[in-house]
Structure formats: structure tokens, C-alpha cells
Amino acid sequence: MEKKYILTEPLVASIAEIKYQTKIEWRNGVLLSDEPVSLGGQDLGPDPYTLLLSSLASCTLATLRMYIDRKEWTVPEITVQANLFQRIVEGKLLTTIERAIFFNQPMEAEQKDRLLKIAQSCPISKILKNEVQIIDDVF
């Protein structure tokens, strides 16, 4: 089976001697990730949980904007709040992500329901809701 990658080039992340500060290089620049001060970092960038939730939020917003624009609806602003929590259920770690979508204007229930379905179909939602494999190599 041939692999069809989503990214043209893989992102590259590295860490040097600054405690927990990670440099993430992507096709157009560099992003810093860090841990909060309470965990020994300097909080100079989003932590890994924030990066994960940011992927979901930005994908949700972009997917909704594409749909709203295609329908030619007037929705000037959309906001997403996201958080997660974990607990052990039947001996397994269960992670629950909560996503709240705000359209910041009055909207009919039917339109909101349709937009919720669109949000739930964004590519990152689909990844997170389905089985994910991680294939590791060490060089």
C-alpha cells in the first residue's frame, strides 16, 4: 500500500539545551513550543496539549468558514473554545475533548445544527474520533 502523506514535507521538531523549549519547523516558518513555568518551562510558546487543541480549533474554524462562504451566509465571526480532561475508565485512559462553537450572532436552530455537523466533519475531528496509529523509528 502506497503512503499518501497529508504534508508535502514533514514538519521537523527539535530540542536543544533550553529546558522544554521545542523548535517546530514547518513549510513557512518556525513555531516555538514550551511547557508552562509550573512544569519547569518558560511558557514561551504553546504546550503540546494547547497545540493539539489548536489544531482542532483552527480546522473547525476553517471548515466552517469554507462552508459558510460557499452558502453565502453572513456570519462575520466564529469563535471556538476547546479544552480536554483525562480519566481512567475500566483500566484505560480516556481523553475527552470539549469544543464549544460560538457564532456571536442570533442564528436559527436548523442553521446551527447544520453548522455543528460541518464542524464535526472537519479533517482533524475525523482524525481524533477514529483510530490513530503511531509508527516510530529511532535513528
TrEMBL record:
Q: Which Gene3D superfamilies match?
A: 3.30.300.20
Give the originating organism. Pedobacter steynii
Check the record and name the InterPro entries matching this protein: KH_dom-like_a/b, OsmC/Ohr_fam, OsmC/Ohrsf
Coiled-coil residues: none
The highest taxon in the source lineage is: Bacteria
Q: Which PANTHER family match?
A: OSMC-LIKE PROTEIN, PROTEIN INVOLVED IN RIMO-MEDIATED BETA-METHYLTHIOLATION OF RIBOSOMAL PROTEIN S12 YCAO
Annotated SUPFAM superfamilies: OsmC-like
Descriptive protein name: Putative redox protein
